[in-house]
Amino acid sequence: MPRSPRSLLIALAVPLAAALAIVLTAPAPATADRVVIGGHPARTVEAPWTVALASRALFGEKRSGQFCGGAVVGPTAVVTAAHCLSRGVLGKDWREVRDLKVIIGRNDLRKKDGVEYPPARVWVNPAYEGDNRAGDIAVLTLGVAVPAAYTIRMAGTGDQAYRPGERAAVYGWGDTEGDGTYASSLRTATVRVLADSVCESAYPGNAEGDYDPRSMVCAGLPDGGRDACQGDSGGPLVVRGRLVGLVSWGSGCAVAGRPGVYTRISSVADLVAAHG
Ligand code: ARG
What we know:
Protein name: Serine protease
GO cellular component, one term: extracellular space
Order of helices and strands: HEEHEEHEEEEEEEHEEEEEEH
Keywords: Disulfide bond, Hydrolase, Protease, Secreted, Serine protease, Signal
Largest sheet: 7 strands, antiparallel
CATH topology of the largest domain: Thrombin, subunit H
Number of domains: 2
CATH architecture of the largest domain: Beta Barrel
Subcellular location: Secreted
Strand content: 25-35%
Bound molecules: arginine
Oligomer: single chain
Mean pLDDT: 88
Helix content: 10-25%
Pfam families: Trypsin
CATH superfamily of the largest domain: Trypsin-like serine proteases
Structural class: alpha+beta
Distance between the termini: 84 Å
Shape: globular
Number of helices: 5
């Protein structure tokens, strides 16, 4: 007797359901190996210029009060994202944060190694627009010079490090799962610099964002899976040993077709030089 269409459907549906169950219950690849999302542990010696911005008064003792990242670009100059010092992040004016610190040389935020510097001066780009998020840069000036080994060179305009396809590394202590799970130790993820056209079509100025190639650069993987996330902001994106970007924004984290957007360092290098 020929099988009825119904039983054929079930015959197909059962293996499909079984396959789905495997996909759904299999552990996500490399859960223990995720920054940054999809990343892996970084050693401070590989990225000594990666710093944490912290306030224990605002963000608690446990992870040294870390709330953003940053990068050392000169003996006393540290760059971060302007939005890290916004009311939205701090809940108050940054000038009212009495225990703002730049932490250098601490891989594990639960430990005490490295040095905590209160910034001697803070400059937040007054042109930073909350609307389209262009010019997301702030400069913290340290009162003491740090050794040259702790600094990273900024990429200039036309640097080949901005070519699409270049391999890029982002560093941070931010959310590793996209659900508020913050890293205790520094992590890094490898992504690729993307063409401006890709970023513009991902963020054409709709509710998800407005990509501005003059002041931003974006990076990610075609299928997502690796990205910066909340808490990584202000942290470095590095290509060929040069600082090319600072974690700025994105729609979700590690979502396919929604790359991470970074402050384009070459576009703010003059501002950094003037205020560092
Ligand atoms: N705005 C976030 C922060 O303050 C950074 C988000 C980066 N998002 C991304 N998908 N790359 O930490």
